[in-house]
Amino acid sequence: MLPFFKVNTEIQNARYMLLRRWIWVVLGTIFILSTTTQAQVNFTGIDMFWKLTDELQENTAPSEETWQALFDTPGYRYLVDVDRKEKRFRSFFPLAFMPSQKTALDSVLAGKDRIDLFFLEHYLEIKEKRDSLESFKEELAQTDLTQQALPIVAKYLPDGLTESHLPPKIALVFYAPDGTATKGLIIIDLLLAMKMDLTAFLAHEMHHHFVEKITRLQRPGRDSDDYNLIHAIAQLQLEGAADLIDKRELMETSEIINDTDSEYHRRYKQSYRGASADFVQVDKLIVEISQDPAKMKGHAKQIRGMLPFAGHPHGAYMAKLIEGKLGKSAVIETLTNPFAFITTYNKAAGMDGGNSHVFSDTAIEFLKTLEQKYIE
Question: Is residue 24 part of a domain?
Fold first, then answer.
């Protein structure tokens, strides 16, 4: 009887330990899920920005240590190391925030450099709206941004993709009225976020994050003659498919330019309306490359220049046409291969009664050679 009792006791103890472990696993999972938002959203770039600009507003040049503390925050680290924005930050932050720089600031604002004006006006608005931005930041800190955006982005991705991969982290910063997604991190300007439908915009950027997990494209290096053409093709697919999430209103009102439209919205609509005509020229350049490969570098750079805003409006035109003629699933099916996005667009364009340019057989055949080279 004693050995039998001992065996039963050992079995009960083993079951107890197993049950205890499962309880800890469940509790741990609940804890992780409940703290996802706090862990995913990073505001340190905002906090360091205010610290640095407080010094600037006192006409004090920030120490190198303060600059580096700003650049070491997640969002700014990428913007400095990859996007090469450090020179602009070091020049324009003092211009916008130091009282002693007013004469120099007025001179730049009176100039005709649209890029300088684009950034400086943004920084001046940040300075003016600090209280509102701080309140908005506190509101976001209490909001589950990730869980709000995931159901939206999931509708534009293959089934199950958002469940099989972790969502990206989010860094809020001040840099430009823009956002970007890169290798598990989404960077969004807080002033831009305050002005827009942040959930839809975040879903757009998340789309890039998840597509990166499934793309079969192997991009060439920047020093390759093919780089600009491959980049342009990739951007058409990447931004076009994602713009279906948050830029439908721009597409559907592209024929109407309102006084209330921002400069970005006006130019987006103009580019969207002119996309088919631009594709005629892109087609001719690709054909010329196919006939004389020595023209690749120059023509590829020209093609990329014809697709402004990183391919957004032209890609959106293609994605919207594919969706309209073949269904949203046809767009989703191209997400692993940007060359498939081009050929699927061509199929949809052929169904559009002559309203959309159909790329020539010569151009398509040449793109197929690039597809064999860069799709794994």
Answer: no
